Amino acid sequence: MVDAIVIIPTYNEIENVERIIRNVFSLQRRFDILIVDDNSPDGTAVCVKELQKEFPDRLFLKERKGKLGLGTAYIAGFKWALERSYEFVFEMDADFSHNPNDLIRLYNACAKGTSHVAIGSRYVTGVNVVNWPMTRVLLSWGASKYVRFITGMDIHDTTAGFICYKREVLEKIRLDKIQFMGYAFQIEMKFKAYLLKFKIKEIPVIFTDRTRGTSKMSKGIISEAVFGVLKMKIKSLFNLYEI
Q1: Which CATH number fits domain 4-237: 3.30.160.620, 1.10.1040.10, 3.90.550.10, 2.60.40.10?
Q2: Could you tell me the pTM of the whole model?
Q3: Domain ranges in the chain?
Q4: pLDDT band of 210, cuts 50, 70, 90
Q5: Is 216's pLDDT higher than 60?
Q6: Which of 38, 42, 85, 205 is the most exposed place for a label (fewest CB within 10 A)?
């Protein structure tokens, strides 16, 4: 029985989706995949449906009506996984910024180690980012430092989106109470796990910026992270934050 599933949200990832699926399925350890597609006009979901014929028991697709945000995509994926028997649930991007080979290292940290959450970390051993301009490196690194300072979490890469959660973490977090829908969602999930006293471990990985397709980063996403984190921390201090 497969105990691990990789959730991959997609929007216009036709250039990457087949390659990422085949790469994950080529690993020595077996992982199932759930693609959560936000009605990509480029045919991403159509490609996945064709691949389902080849991988009928390993590849799953959840189609949504439109571009509803990264956070809601993962929450939909988490709920789908929890309705089934998966013990380890992963977040991973479709664009190869996360190396599929590292899935096994994250899995081992939770399945063979004592961690409840394993983070594929760009910053735990320095700055391990490839193909980003220096301005974006500084922005991302600075954002993680800011979040670490504000929240008190002992995590170097607080904005990372390459993660393994043990089932019990997702069962304990009240997913319907998640406030952030953009990339700040990643921060909030870690903060909730931290407040619930789960053990979080960072696994050093090399992050490589996409070579195909278009980045979904925007100024609004950054603003949500900067100001939302401060509000989140203040609420937690006064017991007004729902975990």
Answers
A1: 3.90.550.10
A2: 0.93
A3: 4-237
A4: low
A5: no
A6: 85
